[in-house]
Write a structure and sequence with these properties.
about 180 residues; about 15% strand; alpha/beta; Nucleotidyltransferase, domain 5
Amino acid sequence: MGNFYLDIETTGLNPEKDKILTIQYQELERNTGEAKGELIILKEWESSEKEIIQKFIADTNILDNYAFSFVPVGFNLGFEHNFLMQRAKMHGLPAIDILNNPFIDLRAIGILMNNGEFKGSGLDKLTGKENSGSNIPILYNNSDYDSIIRYVQLETEEFIKFNAWLYKKLPGLLEEFGTTNQPH
């Protein structure tokens, strides 16, 4: 059983026409949210989109019957879900349905931390992440793969830092909420 940071980079926002460029994942410590294993980055430009999806399926056991074999932890996992589902289907691979098993999506927390506003609640607005990644397709078209890898590594570091911070802070909020909502 394991929690794994999960993210992808793509050529755009439409899973019917845009492709997955990278799939990155890293095992997380279940009790602290800190990185436990090494960051794995599967790169489309080293093989193909179909092959990185196949490798992701094989290496992560995400399709196991045991729902807790691979618990995705990410930010806006609906994006990863839609792309992985659609692109796997297009390649004749088994459906990867990450939202019908246990998962942890920090997007809702980001929205709440931004006073309930969606705009301005991206990971790049909440952490030290430098940008939204909207330039990834340009980097890919220019074959600037090293810049894509650096972006992925920095994004992963910022996500894990945010995740581990939440693991430390949120239990205290539960305690505070419980003490302020006790009947008097």
